[in-house]
Input
Amino acid sequence: MSLIGTRLELRVDNVAHGGWCVGRHDQQVVFVRHALPGERVRALVTEETTRFLRADAVEILEASPDRVEAPCRFAGPGGCGGCDWQHASLEAQRRLKGQVVAEQLRRIAGIDRDVHVEELAGAPGGLGWRTRVRFAVDTDGTAGLRRHRSHELEPVDTCLIAHPEANRLGVSELVWPGVTEVEAVVSGTTRDSAVIVTPRGAKLPVLPEPKASSAVLRRFKGGRTQPVRGRRGIRENVGGREFRVSAGGFWQVHPAAARTLTEAVLAALEPKPGETALDLYCGAGLFAGALADAVGPEGRVLGVESSAEAVRDARHNLRDTAWARIECADVATQLREWVDMRVDIAVIDPPRAGAGRVVAEQLAELRNRRIAYVSCDPATLARDLKAFVEAGYELTELRAFDSFPMTHHVECLAVLDRS
Ligand SMILES: C[S@@+](CC[C@H](N)C(=O)[O-])C[C@H]1O[C@@H](n2cnc3c(N)ncnc32)[C@H](O)[C@@H]1O
Output
């Protein structure tokens, strides 16, 4: 008989990757949301597989001292799926994320290390930081945020983790007929903003006027975007350099993240004038720009990025440093061509899926003295660190940053030296 819809009373043990805690019911593992380690809860079963159950803690019988009242009224069982840890103090959130990263490193890479997650500046109370918010749109044109693991919408009028300027665009107050998705994008460092709409069919419907938007773009299948009104990109300022970033392209979502990570990468790599540096998965050239300034005209920076739009941005952003070059290519393909090149240092910042063993081995062939690996997924980071260690590197430093407060996400920087 299915357990879905039943309420189980259980003790919650550890935290698990993805915003869950782990409990047990009759020897069966139960992944519980809205709970905290140490709590006794009544949990409503929401999913059942042959190996485990998923459940929402709907009643807290014994509360953890880390529990707080969720600041957002849309968070909680059955509510908006955007946040995982609204019910934990910020300090506890960082502690839990540190435990998750440590556990992934231990289990997947065999690396034992305590992980301390650093707070980022500029988001008091862990709110108001999200510079990109993706709204799903119902067939009747209502925009909202998705419930957890569901296609259903929660009609959120103000998202508390969204940047105030993203809320000011008023996406959820407008009706969007003929549209499946609306993304609000704002700059963390300038006043630029944009709205990206994905039409339901081939034709762009008549769109409502966003309240404070400087640009409207249309997204095509496959992700390409095209301006409907205003500029294609938004501007960001980091370390005295202005970056143009296509509204549909990648940029760190927390306003302080780009600066914090750039400083951390520079501190880790210690680039010296005249050195050759790689920036793999370079996006709009964030790290390449800082490395170019550090190695100077006697040095060289080579960036690799597969998105043509991001490559155009990166080349534009680095136009004043002729010694920085951006290749539009897949990283593994490009590294095959560079097999005989001398490289001193490399930063690598792959998407969530990670870089993979092939890239780790290719990078090791270049015999660079140090690699800074920036990652937004501790599981793929751990898998790739194992490959780097097997290819002759040693993990010498690991930093973690709370770039996504209230959610389970965490950004890591791993420093690898040739062993
Ligand atoms: C996490 S972002 C990092 C961007 C940049 N480092 C930053 O911080 O702004 C990852 C980037 O890798 C690019 N990318 C994904 N797969 C790639 C591949 N196989 N080869 C090259 N670039 C890739 C994406 O387009 C994206 O711009």
Q: What stands out?
A: The mean pLDDT is 95. The chain has three domains: 7-67, 130-232, 236-418.
